Amino acid sequence: MTTAIFEQFINGTMMGSIYVLMALGMVLIYGVMHVLNFAHGVLFMVGGYLAHLFFFNLTGSYPLAILGAMVSLALIGVLLERAVFRALRDNLRMQIVASLGLIMIIQNGVVQIWGPHALQMRPPPVEALVRIGQLSFTVQHFVIIGVVAVSVAALYLFLTRTRLGTAMRATSQHPEAAVVVGIDPNRVYTLTFMIASALAGLGGALLGPLFLIFPQMGDAPMLKALSAIIIGGMGSVPGAIVGGLGIGIVESLSTLVVPTDYRDTIVFGVLILMLLIRPWGIFGVRVRGEH
Amino acid sequence: MTRSFSNLAALACLVLGALAPLIFGGQPYVLYVLTLALCYTIPAIGVNILYGYTGLVSLGHMGFAGVGAYTTALLMKDVGVPFVPALLGGALAAGVLGVLVGIPCLRLRSHFFIVVTLAVGMILFTLFNNLDALTGGAEGLPGIPRPAPFSIGPIDFEFRSLTGFYMLTFVVTALIFALQFVLVRSDFGRSLSSVRQDEALASARGVNVFGHKLMAFALSTAIAGAGGAMKVLFLRAAAPMSFDMHESINLMMMLILGGAGYLVGPVVGAITFIAVPEFLRIAAEMRFIFFGFVLLVLARFAPRGICGLAESAYKKLGRREKTVVGYS
Amino acid sequence: MSMLKVRGLKGGYGGRLIVDGIDLDVAAGEIVTVIGQNGAGKSTMLKSIFNMVPVRGGAVALDGADIMSVSPYRMLTVGLAYIPQHHSVFPKLTIAENLRMGGYLLDDKALLHERTAMVEEMFPILKARRAEYAASLSGGEQRMLEIARTLIMDPKVVMLDEPSIGLAPKMVDLVFSTARRLAEAGKGILMVEQNVKKALMASDRGYVLELGQVRIQDEARALIADERVSRLYMGVRG
Amino acid sequence: MSAILEVSGIVKTFGGIRAIDGANFTLDHAGIYGLIGPNGAGKTTMFDIICGRQIPDAGSVRFHAERIDGVAPYRLAREGLARTFQECRVLPEETCLDNVLFAAQDKHIGTELLQAFTRNTRRRREAEAEARRMLKLINLEQYADSPAGALSYGQRRLLEIVSCLMSKPRILLLDEPASGINPTLLNTLHDFLKEIYAETKIIFLIVEHNMEFIMSLAQEIVVMHQGQVLMQGAPDAVQANERVIDAYLG
Amino acid sequence: QDETVTFGIVTAQTGPLAAPGKFQMNGFELAVEQINGAGGFQVGDTTYKLALQVYDTRCNAAEGASAMQRLVTVDQVPVVLGELCSPVAAAEGPIAQDFGVPLITTVPTAASLTEQDNPYYFRINANSNQLNAALAQYIQSIDGAPLSFIAWNNDAGRGGANGIQKLLGDNYEIGYVGFFNVGEVDFANHITNIRNAGSKSVMLLMDEEPGALAIRQIRDAGLEVQLVGTLAMGSNRFLDRLNAEYLGGMVQYSAFPPNAPIERIKTFSDAYKAKYGEESHGFAAQSYDGIFAAVEAMKAAGTTTDPEAIRDALSEISFDGVIGPIKFDETGQASPPVYITEWCDDGTRKIIAPADLAAECGAG
Ligand SMILES: Nc1ncnc2c1ncn2[C@@H]1O[C@H](COP(=O)(O)OP(=O)(O)OP(=O)(O)O)[C@@H](O)[C@H]1O
Ligand SMILES: Nc1ncnc2c1ncn2[C@@H]1O[C@H](COP(=O)(O)OP(=O)(O)OP(=O)(O)O)[C@@H](O)[C@H]1O
Ligand SMILES: CC(C)C[C@H](N)C(=O)O
Ligand SMILES: [Mg+2]
Ligand SMILES: [Mg+2]
């Protein structure tokens, strides 16, 4: 049983890392722009497809493919912010409509371009195995955990140590005041979307090879990430990290004791329970004026 | 929202709806799409009470619709209960579940409540899919009977034909619409509205915010349950996929698109949301790409939904200057 | 010489003109206060000068240069600062980070340090609590921080929208004396106030705004003495 | 006879901050009371506690000898405890008339639902007439059918106060009613409150930083400082008190 | 001058089942191309060309029903074919009955579909009972207990896993049963449980994409179990996703072994490969046969427009399709053979059941 727990712990950490990447992007966008971007999952998926494209058709190198996917996604993020979300800044309702519109366009567009069948790519870290006792994991498992850890650290440093990062936090807290001190909010919004999309792209490029690249590959991570940012306190970066990892691990460990067809029931049941016990999220603080 | 606009729009919908069988009698497909749209209008009215008036977002409402649907379907199919009590039973089951979920969860802050509804919706879907013995599981529940025909005096009512079932759905929808009308125009509706606009103020003025939310949630889940029941009676088959998260999100979208907080928002939204993709069938694989663009355009140019657009057009048309808002 | 020069300014929201042709001047070293009934358009006037309303027209010049088409977030670079009516500190940034954001447009690190040091000397409380969240400051202290923050860019003119709102009497005095210190340092100060008497007493000149237009303009002392002004805008019964 | 409102030993902390630190005061008889103190003294928090919006960590609040701390705000509101908010709250989408009517309506869910199905137009019309009369008193009658969100700051404050009065409270708490209001309009408000008090003898408890306003309006002033009550007394006494001057008036 | 008959098609062109939908469409289109290429088909004195009116159902019951409604009332097709998802077919069936237009489904497997007393409902493919029977029989013939399952949490997966367990009976030791949602691709937790259960064999009830992944993860985790798969896993496309060493010894049921040494299968497979550049697929073969069943029925009924007559003819027809002899029983269910094939070490397949069709490596 302990080996099983260990195995599931590693798997959960790996999936949790992916959720963290997604959650960070969503929490940035939500925190800075108050946009709940349901389309984040399809950006993740596009990341997978682009990594495939870069790997097979352009570079042949997996790290370059990841980089290519991230850069392309960053550009797509800029485009989306400018063309779609900027005009809807203060209209939460229509942001939801628009992001669903985007999901339809992108998901079906991908099927038009790449066909409905799942793609596969197997860069070296997916082929190579690490044996720990009687267990074995692909190297990719650890690559994912490591890359995510580094990205999270980098993002954290960016947000707290740099002028631009501080400006991002400032804008999220008080957009009008940001203008008054000379921050161009549009630039911050574009930057936010760019970073968030690049993170989604990174997620897709990391997970796609381990599993499959297909049009719905972003749906589940998006949902889990959404849950993660909510239990993390909506707008809290550490909350998103703990929430994402927590969901990944709970979901993996739960399968040792309950039938897998009830896995989501467990995950979401735990979520509900947690909210009932700590109604303001893990990291959320209760602030005056909120209810 | 101007009252005259709302009343006018409601009246127009009612008249058009009642006349639809005459207008589209020769086009069963159109009538079919309208019936389906009405099946979504009902739960959308539920969401309107919850979101449009009370300000609570639910991303799991089709789960509650599913509870109503399976309850009604099983009552009619396996127990042989007649339509009206079965429908009420379905609505009741969904409403009771709404209360059970609402009591612990409605005290949560709004965005937590969103995720709770999402979670409850997922859990309900899992149950529909996995309880093979009860719900038929993933293979669905085929063979759900239509309401039995009956006659009052010389007039026969039957529901197997499209026209018959359309009229039945229309009557159910109209009743629920009337309920919505009465509720939102009452003191109760004003209290719900105050909860949406400012909870702290509402409770300082004596509104039992939790109680009102619970009532709104119960009503809205019960109405959704009735809608789900009509849907499976119409399709004569129940499937878990008909009540999954995507459907719940679509329901929310319908309302927003039609115009949340407008009496006829659910009607307009459901018809748009059902009819446009049907119309786009000619576009085959491209149809959801087109539909996606339609949504983007609407989001951009109809910030308060189609009803909002219509309302401003109506106001321009009337040019009836009300009291000038401004300084003294 | 007039530092801030406003001519025929118009501004409003979606089709409604709230500010309707205002002429106004602020010279270096002077405090100018604008008063008027609630809803007269005072806040809108400041926002229009700062290019923060959707509809606007007229001319605004700062130190001789036309700034009509400068984006709000570029205003600080040309020397115009604005402190909105509602609190505008970044609540969950530390005080130091708030000051850092005040110097967002400053690329010169040395200059930034110098100015921050200067401002911290001016407002010692900010230095003492620099690592705390701005939200932990009292209302009056937050006003101080807002003023301090704009000073990092060394603006020529500072516009304040009801700086005394919600402040205890002691704090009000502190804010007005700070304004005086800034004026003495050669900056032009443009204030909007409902605390009319105290504000005018702290000012050099004043404007009375009504329905988006300037009704009266005069020396502050003269306005206080004006019987009609005191009756209509200062609540003096008569 | 017991006091009307009795606050004793209230403590309230937020994280590390002791917003209220053992405050005591009593309002013995009907009257207009002032509550003053420096920024952050805990005045608004005190209001929140009296109205049930915050639950104190320690201490008690009694209203006509009955303990009311921790009772839900809506229950207290139904018991006749009304308040305005420092940041000024109205229902922005409703018209001014509806704002006032809303304050007056019975908010028991059962009654509301009953009303939905048995409309009593006569009673509704009566309430409307009363509401319009109130709006007229504060010069807002021409805004009766405009959404409250379109009002200017000062008018919104007046609307909020009138709404509270419309619910026929037994005690009314006003949080900085004068802030941001033009002095001339303030005179109107001053007279209006005096008039209402003379008419109804309900109790007013008013937080204010505008000394001129509160000192001429109130019969008794409570001074808070750093979460405690510094003193309670007649306006003259308060204004002369050295500690008050030191901490607050400057 | 030729007339054209239009068949209605309901299938998933978008959504999560677009991939199997593609195979289904390939089958339909190949049949149409062949029939039209041969000059059409003759009913009475007229030669008819064939056309398809295709509507997307996204595996959504309401959409399926709308599409069905549109086909029978707007397009007024004489026959409708297709569908992938059982619950959607369940909603389409009653409309077929209401409007008296035969519906021939070619992929959905839920047994209940043909138990609704609906004379207008026909199913060309084996239903879950038939598939399960064949599989259960095979499993009992090997020493595979305890047997574990990893199955899609949908109609096909749940139907299979539950049905086979029932057929195997209470005495047969079951190790672990795990379901996963369509679109999920992480099998780690199932593998852990399978290992814990000490399973000797594992049934994979899913499509080729998750199937390939599951097998790789099972083998990478070092589990030495007998793998039993579905028809999606006995193809060269599947081999491309993995490699032979992962597959050797695995068996799967198949509605259609593309390389079987049977003439009609060979012909079909070659034509399919020529047109689509890949190995043929069972869904395509079933759907291909569906078109021919409809055409045969029209010929027999002597009409292309009278759905009633076509229905009657359909219930009578009997012909050799590529998946086997096609004949509908009184419930509208056909009984094509269910094959069991096994992967050889060189990456080819052999047929091991039914016994009379057994063939060597390279034939499956
Ligand atoms: N964002 C806005 N959209 C539309 N109208 C607005 C907006 N902000 C203010 N107004 C209107 O413009 C008018 C003037 O508002 P403004 O805030 O400039 O007044 P003010 O003189 O600053 O009043 P106060 O002393 O109460 O702050 C008011 O009638 C108000 O209703
Ligand atoms: N929800 C809260 N979370 C954290 N701190 C709070 C909260 N509410 C109040 N405080 C703190 O409690 C103290 C008292 O606040 P309160 O608002 O009651 O003061 P006040 O006397 O009303 O001041 P002002 O005159 O500025 O309105 C302040 O230091 C404030 O920052
Ligand atoms: C692959 C899927 C389309 C299978 C289908 N759900 C069935 O019933 O067999
Ligand atoms: Mg103002
Ligand atoms: Mg206060």
Automatic annotation (TrEMBL), chain A:
It holds the Pfam family BPD_transp_2. GO terms for cellular component: plasma membrane. One of its GO terms (molecular function) is transmembrane transporter activity. Coiled coil: none annotated. GO terms for biological process: amino acid transport. It is found in: Cell membrane. Its main location: membrane. Keywords: Amino-acid transport, Cell membrane, Membrane, Transmembrane, Transmembrane helix, Transport. It is a multi-pass membrane protein. The chain crosses the membrane at residues 62-80, 92-115, 135-159, 191-214, 226-250, 262-283. PANTHER family: AMINO ACID ABC TRANSPORTER PERMEASE PROTEIN, BRANCHED-CHAIN AMINO ACID TRANSPORT SYSTEM PERMEASE PROTEIN LIVH. Belongs to the binding-protein-dependent transport system permease family. LivHM subfamily. This is Branched-chain amino acid ABC transporter permease. The lineage of its organism: Bacteria, Pseudomonadati, Pseudomonadota, Alphaproteobacteria, Hyphomicrobiales.
Automatic annotation (TrEMBL), chain B:
The keyword Transmembrane helix applies. It is found in: Cell membrane. GO terms for molecular function: branched-chain amino acid transmembrane transporter activity. Keywords: Cell membrane, Membrane, Transmembrane, Transmembrane helix. InterPro entries: ABC_transp_permease, LivM-like. It holds the Pfam family BPD_transp_2. The chain crosses the membrane at residues 29-51, 58-76, 82-103, 110-128, 164-184, 214-239, 251-276, 288-306. It is a multi-pass membrane protein. GO terms for cellular component: plasma membrane. PANTHER family: HIGH-AFFINITY BRANCHED-CHAIN AMINO ACID TRANSPORT SYSTEM PERMEASE, HIGH-AFFINITY BRANCHED-CHAIN AMINO ACID TRANSPORT SYSTEM PERMEASE PROTEIN LIVM. This is Branched-chain amino acid ABC transporter permease. It comes from Acuticoccus sediminis.
TrEMBL record, chain C:
Keywords: Amino-acid transport, ATP-binding, Nucleotide-binding, Transport. One of its GO terms (biological process) is L-amino acid transport. Residues 4-236 form the ABC transporter domain. InterPro entries: AAA+_ATPase, ABC_transporter-like_ATP-bd, ABC_transporter-like_CS, BCAA_Transport_ATP-bd_LivF, P-loop_NTPase. SMART domains: AAA (SM00382). One of its GO terms (molecular function) is ATP binding. It holds the Pfam family ABC_tran. Belongs to the ABC transporter superfamily. This is ABC transporter ATP-binding protein.
From TrEMBL, chain D:
One of its GO terms (molecular function) is ATP hydrolysis activity. One of its GO terms (cellular component) is plasma membrane. The keyword Ligase does not apply. InterPro entries: AAA+_ATPase, ABC_AA/LPS_Transport, ABC_transporter-like_ATP-bd, ABC_transporter-like_CS, BCA_ABC_TP_C, P-loop_NTPase. It comes from the Bacteria. SUPFAM superfamilies: P-loop containing nucleoside triphosphate hydrolases (SSF52540). PROSITE patterns: ABC_TRANSPORTER_1, ABC_TRANSPORTER_2. Keywords: ATP-binding, Nucleotide-binding, Transport. Residues 5-249 form the ABC transporter domain. PANTHER family: CONSERVED COMPONENT OF ABC TRANSPORTER FOR NATURAL AMINO ACIDS (PTHR45772:SF9), CONSERVED COMPONENT OF ABC TRANSPORTER FOR NATURAL AMINO ACIDS-RELATED (PTHR45772). Belongs to the ABC transporter superfamily. This is ABC transporter ATP-binding protein. It comes from Acuticoccus sediminis.
